[in-house]
Amino acid sequence: MVMPPMHVGFGRRVEEREIAYFAARAAGGVGLIITGTMTTTSRFEDNEGWPKVEDDSVVPDLARLADAVHAEGGLLAGQLTPGSGRVGPAEPGGDVPVSASATPWLADPSRSCRELSTGEVEQLVADYGPAVARLAAAGFDAVDIHSHTGYLIDQFMSSVWNQRTDRYGGSLENRLRFPLELIAAARAAAPDLAITFRLTVDHHMPGGRRLEEALEMAPVIAGAGIDLLMVDDGAFETVDWIFPPYYMGDAPLLPGAAAVRAVVDVPVMATGNMTPEIGDRAVAAGEVDFVGFGRALIADPDLPRKLAAGHPGAVRPCIRCNQLCVGNILVGQPLGCAVNPEVGIEAHLPQPAGTSRHVVVVGAGPAGLEVARVAASRGHRVDVYDESDHAGGVLWPAATPDFKRELRRMVDWWQGQLADLPVTVHLGHRITADSPELRDADQVVVATGSVQLVPASIPGTDRDDVVDVLQFHQGAPVGHRVVMVGGGLSGSDAALELALEGHDVTVVEMLDEIARDMLLVNRITLLRRLDEAGVRLLTGTRVREVTDDGVLVEGPDGPATLPADTVVLALGSTPRTDLLTELTAAGLPVEAVGDCVEPAKVGEAVNSAYALAARL
């Protein structure tokens, strides 16, 4: 198992927070950790979020990181880049980035990048070796050459971005010259360091690399003296392939890695929504030699040790939501995790409570279960009450499609954790302000969630053939022709689920975009899958009435009636505050968390619940 490079955003220098983060993953048993991107020079780019390895002043901090990882039994590689080129910021003192050629700048395609001169490319190579030597001086075990998904090195490798006429452009041999010179510079600067290299086998974009060309490149790169070839897909034009969301299912990049493994004689690693089971089979079959777990090791740093001990059910699953890992990094925020609130605070975890208290949690959804877990782990006695017959709140019914099954695994994980803690979960048990169960509670936490919005302003929403999206997830019968009223995240996901089951689905959204409340990385895949499933999307369209003939709507082309056997309302939710109001009025010691405060996504509920429980 390898933890592939993922940017952490903890600062421009390696400090305590980052050291503790990586040390926790090493302690969890992963064999090799690769840091996020570090730059070898700021001559042509000053990327705010990337640490620099361009002078010897950084060696002591890097050494502390290497020592911490080694102390926990892990190996450490540093990912080094000469720059991001067209996908990064403008060069210092300029108004556009540099690149292999004068190709469009990703941030503003109307403007072209400045082509690096031959001498400047040679300077980038000259700067690379000393940076690698600094890693060696700090005690690193390997250097990873940042060469994939459309960053600067990949821009030289790819004909779609490289139109040079010097010795670094044109033929495949010339386009590979820059990365091969970087490999040679790394080997010369630090002969004892292993070298890893990441090759994108399919950009999934017009003019980009396809597998056939990657299979020509791979043996040349492997023969240049690398020790591990990591294989992936995507580019920033197709960013969802770089960070595959849950819609892509398991191991979408494994076929490309297996194809590369068949043509090279160095070890190959697959990444991207890998599972331990698939990884086991792939290694046993000789398809790959190493398996990369990135987001999975963010979610649970102890994943390797738990598997080695024969406890796969104890692994906290990554739900592949991209919300606080990829999402945070893309907006310049430090790395987080929707299911693991301890990411980034490994050096300052909550301590045991000074006094054990009796905590009553009302609501067994994500927020309530997380409060119970953390409070009990700190020494409190916890009782959880929920009027439903199953824990998980809305997660459990909402996670019925296969592409959301990790959400149900998350509920199973919480239940497994609570079984080993002083927590009693009471299902099918409604709590009111005068319930005797509250009498000896030192602290009551209300996590009762939200209720679906059903607007009275739309006539006909009280008909028998109209259900809300939660009722659909709970098993309400749905006819063949479905009109989904509301194209946010919940409505769009439900529309995809229905379409995959064979229903004829139309989504009506009054805004001009579908799933506007969604992370862009995930939205790209969702829209593609909705299109593939034949879902009709009507944006800028309002529902006026539900009638015997169907759904009367008004859009850019005027009024129309959409035939429907079932109408599903996905118009959002509102906090369920009745119990909170009653308990507060009764003077009980009460806190509220999750959707009953403000409806939000899973990650926000879990992280706020952790913070609340940490201070009880």
UniProtKB/TrEMBL annotation:
<keyword id="KW-0288">FMN</keyword>
<dbReference type="Pfam" id="PF07992">
    <property type="entry name" value="Pyr_redox_2"/>
</dbReference>
<dbReference type="InterPro" id="IPR023753">
    <property type="entry name" value="FAD/NAD-binding_dom"/>
</dbReference>
<dbReference type="InterPro" id="IPR036188">
    <property type="entry name" value="FAD/NAD-bd_sf"/>
</dbReference>
<dbReference type="InterPro" id="IPR013785">
    <property type="entry name" value="Aldolase_TIM"/>
</dbReference>
<protein>
    <submittedName>
        <fullName>FAD-dependent oxidoreductase</fullName>
    </submittedName>
</protein>
<dbReference type="Pfam" id="PF00724">
    <property type="entry name" value="Oxidored_FMN"/>
</dbReference>
<feature type="domain" description="FAD/NAD(P)-binding">
    <location>
        <begin position="358"/>
        <end position="590"/>
    </location>
</feature>
<feature type="domain" description="NADH:flavin oxidoreductase/NADH oxidase N-terminal">
    <location>
        <begin position="13"/>
        <end position="311"/>
    </location>
</feature>
<keyword id="KW-0408">Iron</keyword>
<keyword id="KW-0479">Metal-binding</keyword>
<dbReference type="InterPro" id="IPR001155">
    <property type="entry name" value="OxRdtase_FMN_N"/>
</dbReference>
<keyword id="KW-0285">Flavoprotein</keyword>
<keyword id="KW-0560">Oxidoreductase</keyword>
<keyword id="KW-0411">Iron-sulfur</keyword>
<dbReference type="InterPro" id="IPR051793">
    <property type="entry name" value="NADH:flavin_oxidoreductase"/>
</dbReference>
<comment type="similarity">
    <text>In the N-terminal section; belongs to the NADH:flavin oxidoreductase/NADH oxidase family.</text>
</comment>
